[in-house]
Design a protein that fits this description.
By secondary structure, this protein is mostly helical. The protein is 77% helix and 4% strand.
């Protein structure tokens, strides 16, 4: 029975990955019709869409009254992007060029938005006031980037909404979102089960295991790049996804209706997260790329992060 549970658990992540791909493809087609700029599409639209698994897991964790799951999942999901997924692409692709249109100030601000939850839960507590703050800084980031890229200035031609394929794509998108929600509900209940069976905190399972599973859309983007032998990555896809996690942090804290108390969060998590983000920034700022050697260093930080959590939970 345990093996079957684990297999269904892993299968749920694959279902989420497949359905997320359908949603991303549908919205990419719509964005192309509306002529949304590539970077805006990358940072905000795809950034949020690739975080749909995190959003669904978070909603279900609130419904199940297990907020530790959404906290661990979002923390791990944001960190994995910068010290696992992009470095993996750099190692197997012989280095990777980071393509983006962010000024240095906006890049720093984006990484600070990503890191903000790590600072706020340093006292093992996340309040509704802090939740509002996280939502606010995401929209401040949106304002500064949108001011340059002009997302709000897009004019939508009415004829675009009478496209014969639009209804079919919309139904497909909604069905995919429903399937992701149901799969996420199963994942949350099974995480609680595994937590009790293996006597491991829900937070730790979410931080290490769930965060990889819900990042399958981002991982698939990296694998596709490796297969196609593309040595460049649209940083907006990944940075936008990590920033969206901070937005979800704020929303879920408000949805929870009360402060979130964490008994297992440690200073070590904050230290290694900030180390990973800081090293990534230094490497990306130097030549706007991540070399194979730098990718290995970032992966070693991720290994250190995992080992420290497993050996000293």
């Amino acid at each position: 029975m345990m093996i079957i549970r684990i297999l269904f658990y892993l299968a749920s992540f694959l279902i989420i990955w497949y359905c997320s791909g359908i949603i991303i493809k549908s919205v990419e087609n719509l964005a192309h019709k509306l002529k949304i700029s590539p970077f805006t599409m990358s940072f905000f639209v795809l950034g949020i869409l690739t975080s749909i698994p995190e959003f669904s897991v978070g909603i279900n964790s609130i419904i199940n009254k297990t907020p530790d799951i959404f906290v661990g999942n979002l923390l791990g999901a944001s960190l994995i992007i910068f010290i696992f997924i992009i470095p993996l692409l750099a190692v197997f692709g012989g280095g990777v060029k980071l393509v983006h249109q962010l000024s240095e100030n906006n890049l720093i601000f984006s990484l600070l938005v990503v890191a903000a939850p790590v600072f706020l839960i340093a006292d093992n507590l996340l309040t509704r006031t802090e939740g509002v703050f996280l939502i606010l800084i995401y929209f401040i980031l949106f304002y500064f980037i949108e001011k340059k890229d002009g997302l709000m200035g897009i004019k939508i031609p009415k004829k675009k909404f009478f496209d014969k394929n639009l209804l079919g794509e919309t139904i497909e998108l909604l069905l995919s979102a429903l399937i992701i929600f149901l799969a996420s509900k199963y994942i949350v209940t099974q995480t609680v089960y595994f937590s009790s069976v293996f006597k491991v905190s829900q937070f730790l399972i979410s931080l290490i295991v769930l965060s990889i599973g819900t990042n399958l859309p981002e991982i698939s983007l990296a694998v596709r790049s490796i297969i196609n032998r593309k040595n460049e990555v649209a940083l907006g896809d990944y940075l936008g996804s990590a920033a969206a996690n901070s937005l979800f942090f704020g929303l879920f804290t408000l949805f929870n209706g009360k402060r979130v108390n964490l008994s297992v969060y440690s200073f070590r998590i904050m230290l290694l997260t900030l180390l990973g983000l800081g090293v990534f920034y230094v490497f990306s700022r130097s030549k706007k790329d991540i070399s194979k050697k730098e990718g290995i260093i970032l992966l070693l930080i991720y290994v250190l992060f995992i080992v420290s959590q497993v050996l000293f939970p």
